[in-house]
Amino acid sequence: MSASNKIIFGNLVYSCVFEKQRGDEEFIPDFFLGFQLSGETHAFHAHGHTIVTENTVVLVRKNQLIRTVKYPNKSGKYQFVSITLDKETLQQYAIENKITVDTPFRGNQKLFFEPDDFLRSYFLSLAPYINKTKEATPKLAALKIREAMELLLQSNPDLKNLLFDFSGSYKTDLKEFMNQNYMFNVPLESLAVLTGRSLSTFKRDFDRTFNMPPKRWLLERRLEEAHYLIKHKRQKPSAFYLDLGFENLSHFYFAFKQKFGVTSTKL
Asked: Which UniProt keywords are present, listed alphabetically (predicted)?
């Protein structure tokens, strides 16, 4: 059976697969609140590796690069449901509830947060909509989204300083960011947004920082890591080439020999 992603209502998306599935690199532009109904999601990101287990609720921060592997449970089913909290929705909620940001958010800086049992119960209450035994009117859909935000703030009031901080983007440290995210095969436009820059400014700052264009640096950095994995970790290219951002093995083998003068097998 094939994988499926269904929009249940508004910003609510249901994902279901029946065999292990490796996801592509994704640029997460908005916050989203998710619930692992069955199976596990293994998420790889700049801060490491996070496993979202069954019956876990997570709030994923916006402006992240992430790669996922979806694992069905023993009965052969993977199910994940998520609600996107986009800027427009959050701004409207902030206006209606007169929310202002007091101080910068200083909580957990990791990719995932783990809210409480009230949110688990909330997601379980969405089962009739997911199973299509009940239809949600636009008004009810909007109320369900607001209910999720109410419960989220109830679980941690300080999250208001994270969710409702609409201040403009700021430039991140380019060297630190690139060394944390070089393995993600995403367009340069996404990297520019994540570092708080326009594409032209990103390229200009990149050349000033690394003394070479972004694409050349990315290839060099990935090949250096590949060299280390082969020589010191005794790993085969087929086991890691996708994880390092290479699109196929042929490209990897050609680039590797061109840089090091030998094939990967001769290391």
From this structure: DNA-binding, Transcription, Transcription regulation
Total tally of structural domains belonging to the chain:
2
Domain assignment of residue 96, given as a range: 4-163
Taking alpha carbons only, the member of 129, 111, 96 closest to residue 64 is: 111
CA Rg, the chain, in Å? 21
pTM over 0.85: no
User: Which DSSP string do the residues of 57-119 spell out, in sequence order?
Assistant: EEEEPSSEEEEEEEE--TTS-EEEEEEEE-HHHHHHHHHHTT----S---S--SSEE---HHH
CB 204 within 8 A of CB 211: no
Same domain, 52 and 81: yes
Q: What is the DSSP letter of 247?
A: S
Instruction: Pull the structure tokens for residue 172.
Output: 């991140």
pLDDT at 88: 92
C-alpha to C-alpha distance for 115 and 138, rounded to whole angstroms: 26
> In this predicted model, which residue has the larger pLDDT, 199 or 134?
199
The two three-digit tokens of residue 23, written as one number: 């996801």
pLDDT at 11: 80
- Residue 1 is predicted with a pLDDT of 42
